[in-house]
Structures are given as structure tokens and as C-alpha cells.
């Protein structure tokens, strides 16, 4: 189960991130699209370098080595304009919006976010254009994990995993909630029981 950062700074963000790690968060995607290099460095340092192996950088990939981060994420746009990855042992992920895109990914990607699966909790008017549960029946790529993103919450985790996704990613159910840790634990319990 993956958690993605809120794109902008919010109150108690670092405390929430630390609490999520304490509850067993495996991977945390640092997705701050408008942050400068300095802001990314400061954000990661504030999280704590002891968590660097559980962090995934979405931007300023060249900082990964200095920050002790071995995971980077390519947006769809960055994937079509590949950035040279200097470390062949680096773990990479990406974002896609159709099963055809997913099926055509190279084996270099450990996992890919397919979104939106449900109507987004964090983005207004961002909903699936097609039934992705029908779409993923056309899956031919089994080298890359397929991760559901977009509107994922405790109410639909079981359905999501039963219908063919390998894992889930949480964003709005964490950051657009007054009870982010409770929501995380509920989703985690469902994932572990699956």
C-alpha cells in the first residue's frame, strides 16, 4: 500500500507522515510538483533521512543519490521524454491512464499507477472516463505491478483488489480527511486480509 503526499504543504503534514510510517506505511511518494530543489531537500530532511529507503521522488530526480533515495517516479510526460537514470539499480515507477499504456510499458518499471479508478477525492471533477475494471481484463503486462489510484478508500479497497489490481495508492483518503491515520489503518487492514 502506497501513500502519495499532498501536492501542497498542509498543517501537521510531517507529523502525519511520521504517524503513517509508525503504522507500517511501506512507501511514501514525495509529489510536490511546485517545490524547488531546496524545498524538496528540506521536505525530505524534515521527514528524516532514516526513511529515505521508503521514499519515492516525483521530481528533481537528480537529488535522489544525495538524499539516499533509491526510488524515482516518472510522470506520463517525463516517461515520453525519458530522463537518463544514472543508477541501474534504481527502482522506478510511473503513472498511466489506460491499460494500453500499461501493457506497452517496458520491464524497467516496478509498478505503475492507473488512474482515476474512482471519482477523485482530492481533485474536483476528476473521474474515470471508462470502466477501468473492464479495461484491466485486457491486461497483458504481468511484469509490472498495477496500482489503483484515484478515489481509493476503505469503502472500495476490497473491490479494487478483487477485480485485478495488485495494490492501491492513497492520496485524498489521507490528506482530505480529518482522520488520516484511521483511514490508513482501515485500508491497511483490508489489504492485509485480502
TrEMBL record:
Functional pathway: Cofactor biosynthesis; thiamine diphosphate biosynthesis
Signal peptide (UniProt feature, chain positions): none
Thiamine phosphate synthase/TenI domain segment(s): 3-173
GO molecular function: thiamine-phosphate diphosphorylase activity
Matches recorded under InterPro entries: Aldolase_TIM (IPR013785), ThiamineP_synth_sf (IPR036206), ThiamineP_synth_TenI (IPR022998)
Record's keyword terms, sorted: Thiamine biosynthesis
Pfam families xref list: TMP-TENI
SUPFAM superfamilies: Thiamin phosphate synthase
Gene Ontology cellular component annotations, sorted alphabetically: cytoplasm
GO biological process: thiamine biosynthetic process
UniProt name for this protein: Thiamine phosphate synthase
Top-level taxonomy: Bacteria, Pseudomonadati, Bacteroidota, Flavobacteriia, Flavobacteriales
